[in-house]
Design a protein that fits this description.
Elements (H helix, E strand, L loop, with lengths): L1 H31 L6 H19 L5 H24 L4 H22 L16 E5 L2 E4 H23 L1 H11 L2 H5 L4 H23 L11 H14 L4 H21 L4 H15 L9
Antiparallel strand pairs: 1-2
Helix pairs in contact: 1-5, 1-6, 1-8, 1-9, 1-10, 2-3, 2-4, 2-8, 2-9, 3-8, 5-6, 6-8, 9-10, 9-11, 10-11
Length: about 290
């Protein structure tokens, strides 16, 4: 029971990290129609940023704010300089652009750092275990990551569902042709969505850095699972990304713990089943 409880908490925490990545991906895909294969690289950049900031300043606490602020600025720059020009192009052109970005990001990472595995120390404030039940205790930092992800999820729901800007984002995702007719500035909405998606991916990378090694191409696995989350949850749906991320995180974590040979098959099989039964996604509107 202790092992099962640990894996359930690990699955919950992993699923919430997946949500941070996939929520930005689903908004970018749903609102802009852009297939961003470089989204996993943004997760990696966030993790390396945490490694560099913690190493230079001696404090991990500056890394998450730096990831959010840097992600907003970097995302706005990418959308304005590159993705805006490819919005109306074929999906193949978008795929080639984002694949080129993956190569550029990896080359820049190699030049600025190296190709070794690195570790980021857990902040001293959370470097202990919290008693849960009986003799079972769980990492305080993992619980803190869990709480931060839930807070971000709540803020995103409030923003998207209960603000005028959020209404514009929802309108862009559900019916892009209506945005111009409603007098909304589509370019500003696209820039905001891409900047927010980039910031969320980099924040996820920064939070994940103390939980695992920081290494080249570390975002690839998260990118694949994030696309699975988007397919299951439905394009443009924050609620869909949340519940689908938890579902995928639980299945992947429990599968690797108890049936490692079938973990990948279970996740992909679930996605295939959703595509057969409800191609728009389980939580898609309409």
């Amino acid at each position: 029971m202790t092992t099962l409880l640990a894996q359930l908490l690990n699955g919950l925490q992993y699923g919430l990290l997946l949500f941070l990545i996939s929520s930005g991906l689903t908004l970018i895909f749903g609102v802009m129609g852009v297939i961003n294969l470089a989204h996993g690289s943004l997760f990696m950049i966030g993790a390396y940023l945490a490694y560099v900031v913690a190493g230079v300043t001696g404090s991990f606490w500056l890394a998450p704010p730096a990831a959010v602020l840097g992600g907003l600025l970097f995302g706005a720059l990418l959308e304005t300089a590159l993705f805006r020009r490819f919005r109306d192009r074929e999906h193949l052109d978008q795929v080639l652009l984002t694949f080129a970005l993956i190569l550029l990001f990896e080359e820049a990472r190699s030049i600025l750092t190296d190709n070794q595995f690195h570790s980021v120390a857990v902040p001293a404030l959370f470097d202990f275990s919290v008693p849960i039940v009986g003799g079972f205790a769980y990492s305080a930092y993992r619980l803190a990551v869990l709480a931060v992800c839930l807070l971000v999820a709540g803020l995103m729901v409030l923003f998207v569902e209960h603000t005028n800007v959020g209404a514009g984002i929802r309108a862009s995702a559900e019916n892009p042709e209506m945005v111009g007719l409603l007098g909304l500035d589509a370019r500003r909405i696209h820039m905001l969505v891409f900047a927010a998606g980039t910031a969320l991916a980099m924040l996820a990378g920064a939070l994940a850095a103390p939980l695992q090694s920081v290494y080249p191409n570390m975002g690839d696995g998260f990118l694949i699972l994030s696309f699975v989350v988007v397919v299951i949850g439905g394009l443009g749906s924050i609620a869909g990304a949340f519940w689908a991320a938890l579902l995928v995180g639980m299945i992947d974590t429990l599968g690797k713990a108890y049936v490692p040979q079938l973990a990948g098959i279970a996740v992909c099989g679930m996605m295939a089943l959703v595509l057969l039964i409800r191609p728009a996604g389980l939580f898609a509107r309409g």
